[in-house]
Amino acid sequence: MADSLVNKEVFTVVSLCFLWYVTSSTNNVIGKMVLTQFPFPMTVTMVQLLSISVYSGPFFNMWGVRRATSFSWKFYFKFLVPLALGKFIASVFTHVSIWKVPVSYAHTVKATMPMFTVVLSRIILGEKQTVPVYLSLVPIILGVAIATLTELSFDLTGLLSALAATMQHSLQNIFSKKVLSDTGVHHLRLLQILGRLSFMLFIPFWMYSDLSHIMKETVLLKESSIVLLLLTDGLLNWLQNILAFSVMSVTSSLTYGVASATKRLFVIGISLLVLGNPATKLNLFGMGVSVLGVLAYNKARLDQRKAEKAKPLLPMSSDRVQLLPPPQARSPLKQNGVANGYLVNNNEEKLSHFV
User: Fold this and answer.
1) Fewest CB within a 10 Å sphere: which of 147, 203, 297, 310?
2) Is residue 33 one of the residues assigned to a domain?
3) Structural domain for 226, as ranges
């Protein structure tokens, strides 16, 4: 019976990962096709945000995802609006990078996210990392540098856009953890809120930036293939977020990190095969080194968290010990996965692969 349950869990994880890889790869390939024929990155972003807004509500309600609690206006403007701004900017830069450079190279550059996360966490939160964590950044930087120097279709705008998107995703992850820990809001509800808020906030900017140009390209709009590709891209982008969360909910942090790094390799491989982007052996070597660096980073971070949890508590003198009241007398602060305002699980550690 035990073996049967283990086999069932393994089959579930493998199936979810396979669907995640296929969906993400297809989404990236279609995204490249869309931007090649329809070079409006902001419009592609708006379609994806609209897809999140339209599909999330009914699906999450049917799936039984708990609703988000109401937020004060102060909280909205202090945290959610900046996060929505970050999500929009990161998505636009991502699409610009995919438009200007091959998908394989854009994903290789995105492997630098751990580097941005470590640096920004140190600056913003004052977090210090262990020596193995810092050392794991070396192969990431080295691999991206090799891939950049040997990229046959190199474009400076594409490189800078990919780096800007990665840095923005890192910032978004840091502040998303704050929202998750302080409110206990479900990951998927946060995705829904940010998608809807981003779409509503940037309609005026989209109208000013793209609408007039798109109206002039009436021939493009009349082609059903482009409209279909746009709608498919939005649906796949939403679906890959759902699959990413599903994998995250049934695996450990390290397993999820490995699965995410493997997904990046899968996306790079599929994009090279389907889109036929030329790549030298040294270029492929650089991509592989950067992904291995990400795996080493995930392992080092997991070891660091285990070491921090294993640290013994400092002894206190007897006059400073305060006994807790009996359980029935305590305030019921733990609700919906939140205890004393902090999330009681480690899913927020996996957010850097999800948002």
Assistant:
1) 310
2) yes
3) 2-309+345-353
- Over the stretch 163-219, which tens digit does the pLDDT of each residue have? 999 999 888 878 887 787 778 888 788 888 999 999 999 999 999 888 888 877 665
Q: Is 324 exposed, middle or buried (CB count within 10 Å of its CB: 0-12, 13-18, 19+)?
A: exposed
Tell me how many domains the chain contains. Answer: 1
* CA gap 92, 40 in Å, rounded: 9
* Nearest one of 251, 284, 226, 308 to 31, comparing CA atoms: 226
Tokens 């733990």 map to which residue?
A: 334
For tokens 């305590």, name the residue. 330
Q: How far apart are CA 171 and CA 167, in angstroms?
A: 6
- Residue pLDDT, tens place only, 32-70: 999 998 889 999 999 999 999 999 988 888 888 788 777
Residue 330 domain-assigned (yes or no): no
Encode pLDDT of 318-335 as tens digits: 444 444 444 444 433 333
d(CA 122, CA 114): 12
Q: How far apart, in whole angstroms, are the C-alpha atoms of residue 115 and residue 107?
A: 15
In a domain? residue 329: no
Which positions ≥6 away from 250 have C-beta within 8 Å?
9, 12, 13, 16
Tokens at 121, concatenated? 């966490």
